[in-house]
Structure formats: C-alpha cells, structure tokens
Input
Amino acid sequence: MGLSDFTDMADLSITIAGQQLDHRLYHFRLAYSGFEHAHVVLGGESYVALAEGLQNALWALGGAPREHRSDSLSAAFRNLDRDAREDLTRRYDALCTHYGMEPSRNNTGVAHENGSIEIVHGHLKKVIEDALLLRGSRDFADLCAYRRFVDEVVGRRNARNTPRIAVERTALQELPDRRTADYEDAIVTVTSTSGFVLRKVFYSVPSRLIGYRLRVRLFDDRLEVYLGGTHQFTLPRGRAHPNGRHGHVVDYRHVIHSLRRKPMALMGLVYRDQLFPRQAYARAFEAMRGQLPVRSACRTMVDLLALAHERACEAELAARLDADLDAGRLPDLKSLRVLFSPDAGAVPDIVVSHVPLSAYEELARVHQGEVA
Output
C-alpha cells in the first residue's frame, strides 16, 4: 500500500531569495518499507499537485503499489460544484488505473485511517528542521535549490530503509511506458493589454500574441503556453489573493513598448509592484516620486526599464541603482545609458562581398554539361 497526503510547511519559515515561501509538501510513503517521497507544492491541495507528486514518487521508486490511499481529497474538493467534484473523482480514478493501483480513501475527518503517513509528517518536518539548523540558513537562492535540499533529506531517510525497500520493490507492479497528464488544460485569448486572465490571475505575454488563442497547461508551479502545437514559453503560476482580488504575473519586457508610448500609465497600473524585476527598481521609483514631478519620475522609470531590456543589463543596472540610492543620489539616466552602451571597439567591421552573377552562370553551364 502507498499513501499520499499534504502537510503545511509554514512553521519552518523558508525563504526564496529573501521572500517568504508559502508552500506545502506532498508526501508519499509505502506503508511496509517506509519509502518516502516529498514534493514542494506552491498552491493548495489540488489534483494537479497530487498527480505530479504521486507520479514523481512512483518513478523514483521504480514501481507502483497495488493500492493507493488518500485522505479523500477533501481540500481539493472544497468550493467545487457537483460536476467539478465528479470530474475530479474521474481524473483521480483514471490516474490510479493508469498505474494499475486500486484507489481507496479514508473517511472525511478520520485522520487515523491514514495514520501510516499522518504520523510521519511530524518526523519528516523535524528532520528538515534539523538539516536547516546544520545548514545555517533558511534562505535559498531559488525554488530548485530548495527542492534539491528536500530531496537530499528524504534520500538520507530512505537510505536507512534500503533493505526493507528492496524487499517491497519485488512486490511492486511494473510502471507503464509513460506518465499520464499531471496538468489541466485551458484555452485563453490574448487581449489588447498583451495578456490573459486565468483562474483570477492576469498573465502578461509578448505583444506579438495579441488576438491569438493560446493553449495553456496548468501545473502546480508553472504554466506551459502553446500556440497550436508549438511551445512558446513557460510562466510561473500565480495565485489570486485570499481576499478575492486578482493576482498578477507580469514581465516588464512584455509591456515596456506600450509603456514607452504612455509612460504616465505607470502611475495607475494595478500590477505596478509586479512590474519591477528587482527591488532596486522599486526603490528608484519611490525615490524619484518623492523628489521629481510625477511625469518626470514615470518617464525616467520607464526609460530605465527599457534600458534594462534593450541592453540586457537588468542585474548590473539594479546594482548601480542601489549604489546611487545608498549614496543619496537619484539615477542619472544619461550617464547610465553611456555606462551600459555597447563598446564600439568590440563591434567588428563586417565587409560583405557580393558574388558576381557570372559565377551563377558558370555553375549553370557546368550543371548542364554534366547532365548532357
């Protein structure tokens, strides 16, 4: 028997690049051998999170148990109407069928029926807590680094149970030839604002896609965007605010060209805070708003974002902005443009030699001669 459940990780106060990470762990365990797998989940307890985490666990294990037990997906069912609940149940049953597992659920609110994994949540979080203390920091450079850290902790726990896991592997079913879908599909239309709204979140996209219908695959932590059958790009998945307000996932590169035509629009943008790629840009805008006329502050800020985009110097420009602000100076756009302009000496002189048309005539005569 394999068991799945989710556990909240708020008590560990994990941060990614200094920002608090609101997340859960999807936790899988084999009841007999104690094999475990944990997957960092950014959203709530959803079918997508369950499908991705469970399949990752099965492929890491190398086989599938005869029975898979969950906690009835009560959190995933919350706020769903009857049709949506039935659709979720069908998808979960299809997932288990794909791996030849018999799905079972404990009764809602009766946690001890899932005790073989419920009680282990605390042990796993304690081990992760100890590893964080030894590491000396709860901050990670990015989500991938944190996920590697969790994988290493779980891997050490599994190493202690290697003999029992080896015994249970002989009783597992073989895996199918491929994974099944661990995402949801959606069709969206890109509006004139160079974006689309999905699940109460606005996502910006390149302006060249305005008016197109896109196919989106929703994963727990990302969106894969397709035009027809061609993959276009990947976006981080956003979440609506707890109070019901829309969320925003905005890349300044997608909207900078329209902002340059109307820089004063920066003042009224509902997603302005998400527009700045680094904290230094937000600091610079606040400083300029306090000391310059609003029109000048908006135009200068838009020009700074355009400079970061066009010269591919986002990080370097952010460091220079921080240095200027720490010294009590406002950004000097003219000097920054000179600083980040291309080095004229590094651009080679390219001479294009045109081939005379007589060379093509000679080739034609040679070809005709060979045919003859």
Notes: The chain has two domains: 2-169, 184-343. The longest strand covers residues 2-8. The chain is about 45% helix and 20% strand. The two ends are 77 Å apart (CA to CA).
